[in-house]
Amino acid sequence: MAPISFVKVGILQFFSWPERRVPLPTVYERALQRIEIMDQTGYDAVWLTEHHFNDYSVCPSIPVMGAYAAARTKRLRIGAGVTLAAFYHPLRLAEEIALLDILSGGRVNWGAGRGFDAREFGVFGIATLEESRARFREAVDIVVSAWINDRVTYRGRYFSFEDIEVLPKPLQHPYPPMWVAAGSSEALEWAAAAGYSVLIGPHATHQEVAIQHEFYRRKLEAHGYSSAGRDLPVALLMAIAKSDAEAEAVARQGAQWLLKTYIDPKAIGATGDPVQRYVDSVIVHGTPERVIDELARLREQSQLNYVIGAPLSHATFEAFTEKVLPKLL
Which residue, among 219, 141, 221, has the nearest Cα to 178 in the 3D structure? Predict the structure, then answer.
């Protein structure tokens, strides 16, 4: 089979602690060992997840984990997939990501997201969905401003400061490659109007991804920007096994875990049986050969040029690395 020729391939690295079966340090060490394997193969980046107050993924700090990942790798890019920017003071976020960029030798990809977990919003003192949206957008704009300007002044609804020198600046100039997580039409249009690239997934259906990409490209053009030359990553949940039936079982178990531990079906607009929605329309699953075929179809359907695999088992990661990745590059 001829290569599909994606521009880039990455891995979305969760730090799941299912049923707390092993000591938590073991979760981190296994993830770092996997990241070392990524560095030695053809992956572009590891994309580290940030979550709070949940054993779905026990990584509350991407800059801390990213520094360890950078120290144990040589070429792999360190992606934030994503920093939940509404929960930060944006000047501190700008400092920490810039510092990580320097320590990694200029290997940072910065992804920023608003999040959708009501518990996280409540604990961090964000009262409403609208507040989280407004805080997120202010934070993203301020981080970029802090990187490109010697000194930054900002007067917004939630953040205001005058003539602040933010140090350090990122090693990459003018700043690390950046994306904002977006799925709704409103978020996609906001990103397009600002010229920001977008990152989609991993909870959208394949049809939704295609619709979102097309909408975003139209809005980019309407605001005077082009999608040409942009990496537009899509995170895809994956389950790979020796047979399609085994892979479907892994996919179903993974969907049940997601819905039990983290995902509110209402937050992602799911209707009907949410587990079946994941199995039928969200998770890419099957034998390595079937997964390659499915990715080729998605490549055409969504003009997908950067796939971020989100493996639902370690066996899936191994099969993806050994049998699927070589066919994608």
Answer: 141
Residue 8 Cα distances to 43, 103, 228, 306, angstroms:
7, 23, 15, 5
Pairing relationship of beta strands 284-286 and 233-240 according to DSSP bridges:
parallel
The H-or-E segment that residue 289 falls in is helix 288-302
Q: Answer whether 272's CB lies under 8 Å from 207's CB.
A: no
Contact 222, 192 (CB under 8 A): yes
Q: Write the DSSP assignment of 2-25 as a string of letters.
A: -----SEEEEEE----GGG-S-HH
Q: Tell me the per-residue pLDDT of 90-117, one tens digit each, with 9 for 90 and over.
A: 999 999 999 999 999 999 999 999 988 8
- With bands split at pLDDT 50, 70 and 90, how would you rate the model's confidence at 35? very high
Helices 206-222, 288-302: crossing angle, 10 deg rounding: 30
**170-194 pLDDT, tens per residue?**
999 999 999 999 989 999 999 999 9
> Which helix (H) or strand (E) element contains residue 180?
strand 178-181
Contacts of 264 (CB under 8 A, 6+ apart): 116, 117, 118
Please choose, from the candidates 186, 183, 193, the residue with its C-alpha nearest in 3D space to the C-alpha of residue 219. 193
Percent of the chain having pLDDT more than 90? Answer: 87
The full set of domains in the chain, from first to last, is 8-231 (3.20.20.30)
